[in-house]
Design brief:
Layout (H helix, E strand, L loop, with lengths): L3 E6 L1 H6 E11 L5 H6 L3 E2 L4 E5 L2 E5 L2 E2 L16 E4 L2 H12 L3 E11 L2 E11 L2 H23 L2
Antiparallel strand pairs: 1-8, 2-7, 2-9, 3-6, 4-5, 5-7, 8-9
Length: 151
């Protein structure tokens, strides 16, 4: 049985993108980064995934320096390599080369003691799509209030 502990979710990804496919990837970490992740000192702000020479790289992902660390602490904003099969990377690289697709980080979690990141193949939403999402959410909230009121 897998033990999964969610550390953080990228809420902006669901607001700005339509997620078409998801994939779990491992992350190459250095030194005290896992300790800082377990403390929850991370940020998805401005993070994205770049495909370079058949490898996926997590760029702009912030992991705060570990407070109890020494001079050998990690660089907080370095690029981190993602661990995936070549076949999966090639498949997603072909889709990213198509117009309008990108790869975004969705969620960071710890699975059986190892840091994993859920990435998604996404297409950017238009302002029209975002407005529709807001309308649907409002309708859902109103219907929940109504049913709760008349139970």
């Amino acid at each position: 049985m897998d033990r999964i502990v969610s550390v953080a979710k990228n809420k902006k990804a669901f607001r700005a993108y339509e997620i078409l496919d998801k994939l779990e990837a491992g992350i190459v970490l250095q030194g005290t980064e896992i300790k800082s992740i377990r403390d929850g000192n991370i940020s998805f702000r401005d993070s994205f995934i770049d495909i370079v020479n058949g490898e996926m790289w997590l760029t702009g992902f912030y992991i705060a320096p570990y407070t109890a660390g020494s001079i050998w602490n990690h660089a907080s904003d370095r690029r981190r390599k993602l661990l995936l099969n070549r076949k999966e990377i090639r498949k997603w690289d072909a889709k990213v080369r198509e117009k309008g697709f990108t790869v975004v980080p969705i969620e960071l979690y710890i699975k059986n003691g190892k840091a994993k990141i859920l990435i998604g193949l996404a297409r950017g939403k238009t302002s029209f799509d975002r407005k529709d999402d807001l309308k649907e959410r409002e309708i859902r909230k109103d219907s929940e209030r109504f049913t709760e009121k008349y139970r």
